[in-house]
Amino acid sequence: MRTGAIVLGDPKREELQVKEKKAVLAGVIDPARRDDFQDPLAELSGLASTANVVECGRMIQYRDLPDMTTCMGPGKVQELKQLCEATEAEIIVFDNNLTPAQGRNLEKELDMVIVDRSELILDIFASNAQTYEAKLQVELAQLLYFRPRLKRLWTHLERIEGGVGAGRGPGEKQLETDRRLIDKRIAELKKKLKEVEKRRALTVGHRRNETTVSLVGYTNAGKSTLMRAVTGADVFVADQLFATLDTRTRRWSLPNWGDVLLSDTVGFVRNLPHHLVASFRSTLEEARMADLLLHVVDASNPEAKQQIETVDKVLEKIDVDCSNMLLVLNKVDRCEDRSLVDVLRAQHENAVVVSAHTGEGIERLRQRITEKLGGGYVDATIETGAGNGKLFSFLAEHSEVTERTYDDENRVQIQCRIPKRFLLTLERKSDEQTTVTVIGGPSDPEFPYEDVEEMTPSEPTL
C-alpha cells in the first residue's frame, strides 16, 4: 500500500500491490442481474489487466445474497481453493467489495492474500496518480479503506496475546499504534486537501465569465481522446481504465460561438469505492460548475446502457446538476454491430454519434454544443451612460461582453451574450438612460418568454 509518509509496523501482507501476480478472479452475482452482463467478470478482468495482474482462472457463484462470513458459500470456497492450487495462483481478486470480516475469514480459510474490488481500484489509482492533489486524494482513500482492516493485516501476531495480568499482547499494541498513526495522517491529509480545494475553488471562480464544458463518463469511454481530437491538446491517451485522474482544461473554439473551456475529468466505474468518490469530490468541481456536461459513452461496449446508469448515479451522488447534459456516443468505429448504436439512439433521442479516433461526427458535435449553449443564452445590445458603473459590474460578472463602443455624447453601446436567467433582472433595472435590445429576446416574437425563469431573492441585482 502506497501511503506516503506514514510508517506502519510490518504486516503479514508486506506487499499490498498486485502488480505481476498470478490471480484467480472471483465474484458473487445476484441471479436477477444474470442477463445484465454478457461477461460478468469482464470489467474486473480489465481492472486486473490495468493493474498488471496475470489472470490465471475465474470462478463465479450466483446467489441472492453473499455469505456474511466468506462471501461465497462454504462449498464454493473449497472449489476456489482447489482452483488456486491447480493454477498456482498467488492472490484472489474478488469483484465484490468485501467486509473486513469476510476478507479476514477468506484469508484464513484459503491461506492466500485476498484483494477485493475496492482495493484493486485503489491500487490502480495509486499507480496513476501524478499530481500533488491526486496523490493526496488517493492516499486518503487508501487509509480510510485500510483502517478498519488493520486486524486482518496482523494475523501473524494473533496467537501471541496477553494472559490474565499480562496486559495486552504485541499484536494488540501494534494495532493501536498503527490506528493512531493512520488517524493522525488522515487528519493531515484532510487539512491539506482543504487548502487544495480552496485554491481550486478560486481557479474555478475566476472562470465565472468563461463558458465551460465538462467531459464526464465511464472510465475508458474515450474522453481524453475526444478532448485531443477537438482541441489538439497534448493530453495522455491510453486504452486502459483510469488513465486520467486529474482534471485538465483546454480552450476550444466553437463555430458561431467563440471560445469555451473544455475540462476532462476522472472516469467512473460501477461500485466505485465511496471513500474514493469522497476524496475526488474536489477534482469533480469542474463538472459541478460547468455550463454544459458532455456525457461520453463507449457505444461499442455491450454494457453501455449499464454504464450510462452508473455515471448518472455517481453524478447524482456528488450533487452535479445534469439538467444541461448532452450524451455523446463515442467509438462507433469499433462497433461491429451498428444495431447497438441504434438501440442507444432510440433510448436517447438527442444523443450525438461520434468517433474521436476517426473524426466521424465531430463537426455535428460542435454544432449541437453551440445549440445547447445558445439555448441558455441570448445576445443583447445595451446602450447606457458611460458612468453606469453598477451595470458594467453586473455585465462583467454575469455576461460575456463581446464589443464595447463609445460615442461623442458620453454614451456606450455594449454587445454581450447573457444567460436567460439574468435577462429579466437586466430589463427590470433599465431606466430612461438605458435601453436593452435582445436578439431573440422579449422584443422578438420568436423569443420563448415563458422559458425565462422568474428571479428568486437569491438572484443578483443591479
Automatic annotation (TrEMBL):
Stated role: GTPase that associates with the 50S ribosomal subunit and may have a role during protein synthesis or ribosome biogenesis.
Necessary cofactors: Mg(2+)
Record's compositionally biased regions (Acidic residues): 447-456
Binding of GTP, residues: 217-224, 242-246, 264-267, 330-333, 355-357
Entry keywords, A to Z: Coiled coil, Cytoplasm, GTP-binding, Magnesium, Metal-binding, Nucleotide-binding
Cross-referenced Gene3D superfamilies: 6.10.250.2860, GTPase HflX, N-terminal domain, P-loop containing nucleotide triphosphate hydrolases
Keyword Signal applies: no
Residues binding Mg(2+), per UniProt: 224, 244
Subunit structure, as described in the record: Monomer. Associates with the 50S ribosomal subunit.
Pfam families for the chain: GTP-bdg_M, GTP-bdg_N, HflX_C, MMR_HSR1
Coiled-coil region list: 172-199
Residue segments, region Disordered: 434-462
InterPro entries in alphabetical order: G_HFLX_dom (IPR030394), GTP-bd (IPR006073), GTP-bd_M (IPR032305), GTPase_HflX (IPR016496), GTPase_HflX_N (IPR025121), GTPase_HflX_N_sf (IPR042108), HflX_C (IPR045498), P-loop_NTPase (IPR027417)
Ranges of residues in domain Hflx-type G: 211-377
Domain of life, source organism: Bacteria
Main location (coarse class): cytoplasm
UniProt cross-references to HAMAP family, sorted A to Z: GTPase_HflX (MF_00900)
Descriptive protein name: GTPase HflX
Statement: the UniProt record of this protein carries the keyword Hydrolase: no
GO cellular component, one term: cytoplasm
Family from the record: Belongs to the TRAFAC class OBG-HflX-like GTPase superfamily. HflX GTPase family.
GO MF annotation, one: ribosome binding
SUPFAM superfamilies, alphabetized: P-loop containing nucleoside triphosphate hydrolases
